[in-house]
From TrEMBL:
It comes from the Bacteria. InterPro entries: ASHA1/2-like_C, START-like_dom_sf. Belongs to the AHA1 family. Residues 12-152 form the Activator of Hsp90 ATPase homologue 1/2-like C-terminal domain. This is ATPase.
Length: 154
């Protein structure tokens, strides 16, 4: 059975606000990098069939060497589906010399009304074997916490 990494969080903002944060370059740079990283978007094309390239830099690479270099993870992300304000499906490919990080990972961001807020559920399939499930799910949780802080402060 294929591994599924996931996380969810209720965010005190309407789905449209959360959806917009998923498709805004500046917002994505601010909230997507998990704790201990910063991100830079190198190109941006927010449409089905478009995508972006992001370099994630470890603030301290001594504990977690990067996939692309000692201190970075570089990922090319394509937008496979954009269904406002309910879902964003991304196809992510890491730049890495190590074959355990090869392949295309699908990240689905599902947005569901939850009272006055939005439940955001992230599921990842096709996760490269070199990415540990516990670490990946901790990273998803961290990004969701960042997303909540970002949109709830707006």
């Amino acid at each position: 059975m294929d591994r599924i990494d996931s996380g969810s969080r209720v965010i005190a903002a309407p789905p449209a606000t959360v959806y917009n944060a998923l498709l805004d370059r500046t917002a994505l740079e601010a909230w997507l990098p998990p704790e201990g990283m910063r991100g830079r978007v190198e190109h941006w094309d927010p449409r089905p069939g478009g995508g972006f390239r992001m370099t994630l830099t470890y603030l301290d690479a001594s504990d977690a060497p990067g996939k692309s270099s000692d201190a970075t993870d570089v990922v090319e992300v394509g937008f496979a589906e954009l269904l406002p304000p309910e879902r964003v499906v991304q196809k992510a490919v890491f730049e890495a010399g190590d074959p355990s990080f090869a392949g295309t990972m699908t990240m689905t961001w599902q947005l569901t009304v939850a009272g006055d807020g939005t439940e955001v559920t992230v599921t990842a399939t096709g996760v490269p074997s070199g990415i540990g499930q516990a670490d990946h799910e901790a990273g998803i949780a961290s990004s969701l916490a960042n997303l909540a802080s970002f949109v709830e402060a707006s």
